[in-house]
Design goal:
The complex is a heterodimer of chains A (about 100) and B (about 270). Chain A is about 0% helix and about 50% strand. Chain A contains no helices and seven strands. Chain A has a four-stranded antiparallel β-sheet with strand order 4-3-6-7, with no helix packed on it. A three-stranded antiparallel β-sheet of chain A has the order 1-2-5, with no helix packed on it. Chain B has a single domain, classed as Cytochrome Bc1 Complex, Chain D, domain 2 (Orthogonal Bundle), CATH 1.10.760.10. Chain B is built from eleven helices and seven strands. Chain B is globular and about 55 Å long. In chain B, about 35% of the residues are buried. Classes of the chains: A mainly beta (about 100), B mainly alpha (about 270). At the A-B interface, loops of A face helix 3 of B.
């Protein structure tokens, strides 16, 4: 299980803005270490954001996404006190889910 | 024909504007773009992730004495973190030394947790206890974000360190005969797209000292001030200082002392 994400969610005029900072190495598999050995690929492949049980964003990630990616998006709806969850899955099968309360 | 005449006239006009400006227009544009990029990612400074790990490590019982760092005195009393970094380096009575944040944390790790300083000093950057150190630093400096830089230079030991730091700042060495001033002793200098602050002046020193430690976007690493200074020496192609040695603290005192009155914007975010 990876390190925790930092998620913030705020509702303004019926639109909720979610900002998530994800902790992940996002190794491309194309780099070599000091000894010349290839550093194995290790990156997020799928990401899903939910408002309650409803999926509001689903994304496919790849090696072009930076280390410790920052993701910001908006969706219609949401109210103060409701929950937003963000989950990711990486190519090693690891997953992580974190949640935030809409403020 | 009428349309074509406009071309050369416009070009002349632009040349005049460019010549009148303080610096070339392309340079301003490039740094503007970087400022825009910084603004875009300012909300998501990944230092937050490192700081979160640091907070856990601060409270976690570790080392042979199985203790946390919660009683560590960073100069404002045991366990006080808020604003502590903005007043460092400082002279500590208990050790009889001027210490920067990292050497002070080493003292706390030794006295509270029983972790020997050599575990940090002998480790590689971002490995082992030095990685722990970087996380702790991220946590502590985040708690000084927005605070005024206020380093007390009155103590004789601080004065000594300030003078030594100033000397080290101007001291040229290595195959290129570089000193810190080669890059940081002039206003308006730049390496590629990086503005180089003039660290001799209050404004420049505040911009430099106030924005480190920082997360570097280009390599995804969080760098402490010791790491930053060490890399300056490496880029100078001269001998790299020992972790936490006097010269690194002296330079920090000189920079922080010159920056006095500025604002801490830590942790910073660098390209």
């Amino acid at each position: 299980m990876g390190n925790p994400m930092k998620i913030r969610a705020a509702n303004k005029d019926g639109v909720t803005e979610v900002k998530a900072l994800i902790s992940h190495e996002m190794e491309t598999g194309q780099r070599k270490d000091a000894a010349g050995a290839i550093v194995p690929a290790w990156f997020i492949t799928e990401l899903v954001a939910k408002h309650g049980d409803k999926v509001v964003l689903s994304a496919e990630f790849g090696t072009a996404v930076s280390k410790n990616p920052y993701l910001a998006f908006k969706f219609k709806g949401g109210a103060k006190g409701e929950k937003v969850t963000v989950s990711w899955k990486d190519n090693k099968g690891d997953t992580r889910t974190d949640e935030a309360v809409i403020g | 024909m009428k349309e074509r005449k406009k071309g050369p006239l416009l070009a002349v006009g632009m040349l005049v504007v460019t010549a009148l400006g303080a610096s070339p227009a392309w340079a301003d544009k490039a740094t503007d773009e970087i400022a825009k990029y910084r603004e875009m990612i300012a909300d998501g400074n990944p230092s937050e992730l490192v700081a979160a790990q640091g907070e856990d490590l601060w409270k976690k019982k570790r080392g042979p004495k199985n203790a946390s760092l919660e009683q560590c005195d960073l100069g404002l009393g045991p366990g006080v973190i808020k604003g502590a970094y903005a007043q460092m380096p400082r002279y500590f009575k208990d050790t009889g030394k001027v210490q920067d944040l990292e050497t002070r944390l080493m003292t706390c790790m030794q006295s509270l947790q029983g972790i020997e300083p050599k575990e940090v000093i002998n480790a590689q950057w971002l490995k082992g206890e030095r990685e722990t150190m970087a996380a702790l630093v991220a946590y502590v400096v985040t708690e000084s974000n927005g605070a005024k830089i206020k380093v007390d230079l009155r103590h004789p030991e601080m004065k000594k360190m300030y003078d030594l730091g100033k000397m080290a700042f101007y001291y040229r060495s290595g195959p290129m005969d570089f000193s810190c001033t080669t890059c940081h002793g002039d206003t308006g200098k730049r390496i590629r797209l990086q503005d180089l602050p003039d660290l001799r002046k209050q404004e420049g020193a505040a911009a430099g000292w106030g924005s480190w430690p920082a997360y570097r976007v280009s390599n995804g690493q969080f760098w402490t001030m010791q790491h930053r200074l060490n890399d300056c020496y490496r880029q100078q192609r001269t001998a790299e200082p020992i972790y936490g040695s006097d010269v690194t603290i002296a330079l920090s005192v000189y920079l922080a002392g010159t920056a006095n009155g500025g604002t801490m914007l830590t942790p910073g975010l660098k390209r």
